[in-house]
Write a structure and sequence with these properties.
Elements lengths: L2 H10 L6 H9 L20 E4 L2 E3 L2 H11 L6 E5 L5 H8 L3 E6 L2 H12 L9 E5 L12 E6 L8 H6 E11 L2 E9 L2 E8 L10
Length: 204
Amino acid sequence: MTKEDLIQALIKDGYLKTPAIIEAFQKIDRKDFVPEEHKERAYVNEALPIGYGQTTSQPLVVAFMLELLQLNPGEKVLEIGTGSGWKTALLAQLGGIVFSMERIEELQKMADKNIQNYGFIENGSVKLLSGDGSKGYPEGASFDKIIAAAAADVLPEAWKGQLNIGGRMVAPVGESILVLEKISKNKFKTKEYFGFSFVPLIRS
């Protein structure tokens, strides 16, 4: 299966719709973010191990979440769970100013190396951070968009507090993906999409 086969399948199945996101999938090659021993499976629509008990998400899930996020160029986005950096680079390609948090140091180093190939760290589009993602990133708050790669039991209050009014969050909770729009300081409009599987969010 080629990269184009994967993209066309995601378009056909309705996961990829927006031209900018389709273009990002074309420009940011998943193969560059998959460990050497799994590169031949880079364009298969499945989650792949990246070491340390973590995976790089299934392409359809990444496409689905990016479509839900509705990121606009120039918006500030907090990503919880850098992993190997694939979604981080996609967010930067879409024009986001990305603050990406990872608690596993070795994965952060891997992501840094992978993203360097695209120049997003040098040009200031991506800032990689270490720490407990459940606390968000208060020093950089607030954010226009927040996206998470690991499932919490309940959404951390820190994330809600660090989202701008008018902002949007896409995050897994249990086996669902939640989309929150922040209407006012304490009011959110929520939509839930069922039937997904994620690694758990680890809190320190």
